[in-house]
C-alpha cells in the first residue's frame, strides 16, 4: 500500500513539475480564444463582453478583498497556525471559520497543521466541509447575501461534522508520517529552482487597470452602466474595454506563467523542510486574483459560448434533471481544485441549477486545500473528502425539498 501511495505521489509531483515548467499548454488557451474570435466575429464580441464582465464583476472584488485580508495579516502579524496549536478545544470551530473564509488559504493552514500533528481529525473534517474555495469570491461578488448564507452554513455544518467524526474516530485518526523521502524533497527543490522568473515590471500596469476597475465595479453592481458617463466616447464602450484589457492581462500573465515571486525556496539544513518565501501583500493579491480570474473567465465563456453555438436552453435541461442536481454538484465537489467549483457556482448564478445544488457543492468541495492533503496525507485526504459528501447530500436535498 505504501509503495502504491509513493508511486501515486511521484506521478502527481511529476505532473505538477511539468505544469510549472511547460508553458505551451497554457499559451494555447489565449491563442485558441483569439482564433475563435477571428473565425466567428459574433463569438468574438461575446468573448470581449464576457471577459470584461468577469473582470469588472468578480476580479476587482477579489483583488479588493484579498488586499484587505493580506494587508491585515501583515499589519497585525497574527500567526493562526500557532493559535490553533495552543487552543485544542477550539480547533474545530476555528478550523470551520478558516475554511468558510473566501479562498483556500485558511483551509491549507489547517491541512498542514493536521499533517504536522498540531490539530486533530475533527479540525481537518471541519475545514474541508466548510471551505468553498475561490468560488466564494464569485458568489460574494454577484450575490453577497447568498455568499454570507453559505459562509454561515459552512461554519455550522463544518463544526458539527468535525465534532461528530472526531468523537467517533478520535483526534489521531488517519494521521501518518510524511512519505516524502530526502531524495524526493531534493528533486522537488531542484524543480522549484527552475521555475520561471518573476516579472514584477507588469505590476504597475496590473494595478493601473485594477484601481479604476474597482471604481467602475461599484455602479455596475448597482445595475448602472458607467460607459454612459463618457458622453460621446460612450459609443466606444471605454469601461468595457478597460475590463477586457484587465482580464486579458490576467489571462496572459497566467498563461505565460509570469509569477509575482520566484517560487519556493528550500532550506539546506533539512531537505524535507520546505520553506516558503514571504511575498509582499501586493504579489499575493496579483497571483491569487489572476488565478481566480482565469477560472471565472473560463466558466463564463463556457456558459455563454455554449449557449451561443448550441442554442441550448440550459435552464430547461437542468429543470428536467433537477432532482439529481444536488447529487451531481456534490460529486463535482470531490474534484480537487477550485476550477470545477467555480463552474458550478456560475451555473447557479445564471439560473441553470437551484440553490440546493450550490449548497451541496459548497459543502462537498475542498478547493485547493485537497492538493496538499493528497500530497502529504493521501489516505486521510480521501477519507475526509468522502466524509464531506454525507452532510453535502443531507443539506443539499433538505434545501431542495424545502425550497421546492
Automatic annotation (TrEMBL):
It holds the Pfam family ArsP_2. Keywords: Membrane, Transmembrane, Transmembrane helix. It comes from the Bacteria. The chain crosses the membrane at residues 23-42, 54-72, 92-112, 119-141, 147-165, 201-222, 234-256, 291-311, 317-335, 342-360, 380-403. This is Arsenic efflux protein. It comes from Wenzhouxiangella sediminis.
Amino acid at each position: 500500500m505504501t509503495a502504491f501511495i509513493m508511486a501515486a505521489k511521484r506521478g502527481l509531483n511529476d505532473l505538477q513539475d511539468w505544469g510549472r515548467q511547460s508553458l505551451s499548454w497554457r499559451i494555447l488557451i489565449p491563442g485558441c480564444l483569439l482564433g475563435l474570435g477571428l473565425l466567428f466575429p459574433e463569438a468574438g464580441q461575446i468573448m470581449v463582453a464576457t471577459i470584461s464582465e468577469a473582470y469588472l464583476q468578480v476580479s476587482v472584488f477579489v483583488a479588493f478583498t484579498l488586499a484587505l485580508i493580506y494587508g491585515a495579516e501583515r499589519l497585525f502579524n497574527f500567526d493562526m497556525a500557532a493559535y490553533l496549536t495552543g487552543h485544542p478545544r477550539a480547533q474545530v470551530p476555528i478550523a470551520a471559520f478558516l475554511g468558510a473564509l473566501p479562498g483556500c488559504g485558511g483551509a491549507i493552514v489547517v491541512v498542514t497543521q493536521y499533517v504536522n500533528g498540531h490539530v486533530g481529525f475533527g479540525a481537518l473534517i471541519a475545514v474541508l466541509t466548510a471551505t468553498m474555495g475561490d468560488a466564494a469570491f464569485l458568489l460574494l461578488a454577484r450575490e453577497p447575501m447568498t455568499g454570507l448564507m453559505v459562509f454561515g452554513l459552512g461554519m455550522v455544518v463544518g463544526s458539527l461534522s468535525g465534532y461528530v467524526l472526531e468523537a467517533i474516530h478520535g483526534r489521531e485518526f488517519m494521521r501518518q508520517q510524511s512519505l516524502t523521502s530526502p531524495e524526493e524533497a531534493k528533486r522537488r527543490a531542484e524543480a522549484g529552482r527552475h521555475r520561471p522568473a518573476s516579472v514584477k515590471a507588469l505590476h504597475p500596469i496590473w494595478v493601473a487597470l485594477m484601481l479604476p476597475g474597482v471604481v467602475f465595479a461599484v455602479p455596475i453592481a448597482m445595475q448602472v452602466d458607467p460607459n454612459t458617463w463618457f458622453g460621446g466616447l460612450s459609443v466606444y464602450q471605454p469601461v468595457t474595454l478597460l475590463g477586457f484589457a484587465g482580464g486579458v492581462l490576467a489571462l496572459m500573465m497566467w498563461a505565460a506563467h509570469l509569477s509575482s515571486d520566484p517560487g519556493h525556496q528550500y532550506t539546506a539544513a533539512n531537505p524535507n523542510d520546505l520553506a516558503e518565501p514571504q511575498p509582499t501583500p501586493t504579489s499575493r493579491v496579483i497571483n491569487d486574483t489572476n488565478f481566480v480570474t482565469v477560472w471565472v473567465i473560463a466558466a463564463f465563456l463556457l456558459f455563454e459560448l455554449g449557449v451561443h453555438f448550441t442554442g441550448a436552453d440550459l435552464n430547461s435541461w437542468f429543470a428536467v434533471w433537477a432532482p439529481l442536481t444536488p447529487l451531481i454538484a456534490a460529486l463535482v465537489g470531490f474534484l480537487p481544485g477550485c476550477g470545477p467549483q467555480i463552474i458550478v457556482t456560475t451555473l447557479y448564478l445564471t439560473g441553470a441549477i437551484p440553490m440546493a445544488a450550490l449548497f451541496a457543492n459548497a459543502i462537498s468541495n475542498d478547493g485547493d486545500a485537497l492538493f496538499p492533503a493528497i500530497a502529504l496525507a493521501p489516505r486521510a485526504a480521501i477519507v475526509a473528502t468522502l466524509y464531506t459528501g454525507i452532510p453535502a447530500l443531507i443539506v443539499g436535498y433538505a434545501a431542495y425539498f424545502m425550497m421546492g
